[in-house]
Amino acid sequence: MNAADDILGPSIAAGRGDSLALICGERSLSYTELDRLACRFGNAMLNAGAQRGQPILLLLDDGPELVAAYLGAMKAGLAAVALNTRMAVKDLAHAMGDSGAPLLLVEDDLAELAAEAASQTHTSPRRIASGGFDDFLAGASERLVSADMDAEDTALWMYTSGTTGQPKGAVHVHGSIALGERHVRENLGVEPGDRMFSTSKLFFAYPLGHCLIGGLRCGATLVLHRGWPDAAAAAEVIARTRPKVVLSVPSLYRLMLKDGVATSDAFRGVKTWVSAGENLPAELCRRWMEETGGLMLEGIGATEALFLFIASTPQAMKPGACGRPLPWAEAQLRSADGEPITTPDTAGDLWVRMDSLFRRYHNRPDVTQRVLRDGWWKTGDVFAFDTEGWWTPQGRSDDMIKVSGQWVSPSEVEEAALGVPGVADAVAVGIPNEDGLVRLVLYAVAEPGEHPPILETRIVETLRGKLAIFKCPRTVRFLDTIPRTATGKVQRFKLREGGI
């Protein structure tokens, strides 16, 4: 078996090779053309010396090259690893050293970032910039016999932040891929030829699972957008391509409502909207459906699960609730001592069991052992379910903060802030805004003689230089002291509740 064949094979075998597989700006590829380009990338990787099972790092924007390189790596028996194009230098350096990857395919405008990261690690892959892809692919055949892989052989990695803030490589296998079509086909109603557009980038599990894996496996046409989409860009893509299904995150849905673009005819042509990555407030869900006339479905998945495990469906949805466990996933709440929770409205640690769970964190057997037990994975989320079986998130069991669908480690932000001259103390917390969406706020204590407005500018500029943009606080608030317990632990709940 081979994951790439599981994804492209159904359409090609059914005689739909000439159907559109993807659209990106003015460029489009059929399923046959995508398969041929994937073969060229796979052959080029092998020609460059990559060996079976080795990871291939892809620091690429959404586009035909990323999709083809991803599929080509798996087809060649390698492991595809798409990286966050907004990751910080130190995180990229960690991925390079941790993975030991022989190759990094990188966008031209990220080449300097990659070079700087390479200088900070003992293991540096050969770097191929996108402007040199023609040379890289020169002589690579459009035919490649797919590597015969076992179901438990590695197909892909995804790097996730985890509780320490240091990226961990979650390893997924070829046998997990077939599950990807179920939510897309059964609940989103995607059929061959339907167009799907995700505002979230393909290096996230959310669009990777729904679109690159599930969508292509169902014969859909992926609509891709280069660059980081804002409300205007997303609206333009939707108006130009008229997708049937759109995937986004609550923060962008809110911005599109604010900008007044959700009432257009193009938006009313979308049958199903999907929200994941962070909690979808009930009022935002209701307003969106009123403005667009489409159905809004929410769900939760994770890098470690690859696909959604709790979600609403056309047959069962309730604004404000994440949904119910999906047929292919088992969900269980457990108390702090590991006992199952069966009482409604009782918060507990969420554990999940499903076929697509990651098999391990690369080079991290200690963390793997803590969170994977007897086929169950401890997600780190705290949930509760009500008497009707609706599941809702209550936060994290640790102090991680989810901002715009991405996990942020407070300790990482605080460490960077404490390195700013003039900052005596600092604590980062997630605080819901007026729309119920979590935003990162940094509470800081200024050293004597510092002028807060000037210090705030210094903090913002420093953090933007050290951290990925999504880890930079939207707001800096100054306090005389940080509230702590008698033992010195920060009382974060006071900061979240604004009781200062």
TrEMBL record:
Sequence ranges assigned to domain AMP-binding enzyme C-terminal in this UniProt record: 412-489
GO terms for MF: acid-thiol ligase activity
Pfam families: AMP-binding, AMP-binding_C
Origin: domain of life: Bacteria
GO biological process: secondary metabolite biosynthetic process
Record's keyword annotation contains Ligase: yes
Keywords recorded for this protein, A-Z: Ligase
Organism of origin: Paramagnetospirillum marisnigri
Residue ranges constituting the AMP-dependent synthetase/ligase domain according to the UniProt record: 13-362
Xref: PANTHER family: ACETYL-COA SYNTHETASE, ANTHRANILATE--COA LIGASE
Entry protein name: Acyl-CoA synthetase
